Amino acid sequence: MQALAALWVFVWAHLSPAWGDVVSSFQDAPGCLDFFYQGKVPEWGAATPGTARLCQRFHNSYHFATLYDTHHRIAVYSAYRFQTSDGGGREKRWFVEPQLVDLTWGAEMRDGYWLGQDNPDIYLGERQALNEDYTHSGFDRGHLNPNGHHAVPSRNATFTLTNVVPQNPKMNQNAWRNYESQLTDLFNGQCAKAYVLVGAIPSASNWIIKNNVKRVNIPEYLWNAYCCLDNNNRPIHSGGATALNTEQNRVDRRTIADLTAFLQQYANSPVGELFLNNCEA
Ligand SMILES: *[C@@H]1O[C@H](CO)[C@@H](O)[C@H](O)[C@H]1NC(C)=O
């Protein structure tokens, strides 16, 4: 009996990180792969040094997946399935990822304020951006996975700092926001299901600097790719966009092929497919 208990503790200790937010591969976490069309995880960004794979857990379930770059402290991308929003207001908290502070910590995203209060002697921001980094920075906390593409509680879960990047306020509140609502109309009107990837391309040397420390990279570009399916799970539409993260306030629509070629400029190895078979029937 004792041996069994010991074995159980051993197995638990070795497996439990895979049940949390930070996983060694998205394939390890049942439910986390559901945010990728046909369970295919893009090769894009997989080799970026210092990345962590986050299955975004809130109220005891997963809501989307994020490939997070702990050096630049912004996401490489978030992957999600579109949900029709039922309103519900704007989440007031900003969450952080406890397991990016310590892998043995809880699996659920936590309000950064309270996690800090509970651990006054531990700096939470070594491997992730904190709310204070954005304060007075001149940049918006720009959602990659937008809250408007979800119902509660997934909507709340998008308010995690691992899902936001420093975004030009004009671009965030105008051209990018318009693009997001055009997608809402398309997905609600024509798609039984839609899978979306939204990513950021870090800039070479543009950062939010706090106390002389380069804290959060200000991305050069944001990009988006979507795959829309009919009732029989057949792809019927696909597309994407890129936007320079400046006052220019312009979103350029692109085909998946064109977006892939765009991303290739920022990669040393082949970008590969963003969606299985490029979301073609
Ligand atoms: C989600 O956010 C709304 C708006 O702030 C809030 O009223 C609600 O309690 C939140 N839901 C959960 C599950 O935290």
UniProtKB/TrEMBL annotation:
Signal peptide start-end: 1-20
Q: Which cofactor does it need?
A: Mg(2+)
Q: Which UniProt keywords apply?
A: Endonuclease, Hydrolase, Magnesium, Metal-binding, Nuclease, Signal
Q: Which residues form the ENPP1-3/EXOG-like endonuclease/phosphodiesterase domain?
A: 61-269
Q: Does the keyword Disulfide bond apply?
A: no
Q: Does the keyword RNA-binding apply?
A: no
* Every DNA/RNA non-specific endonuclease/pyrophosphatase/phosphodiesterase domain range: 60-269
| A GO molecular function held by the record | endonuclease activity
Family, per the entry?
Belongs to the DNA/RNA non-specific endonuclease family.
PANTHER family in UniProt? ENDONUCLEASE DOMAIN CONTAINING 1, ENDONUCLEASE DOMAIN-CONTAINING 1 PROTEIN ENDOD1
Q: What is this protein called?
A: Uncharacterized protein
Q: Which organism is it from?
A: Aldrovandia affinis
Source lineage: Eukaryota, Metazoa, Chordata, Craniata, Vertebrata
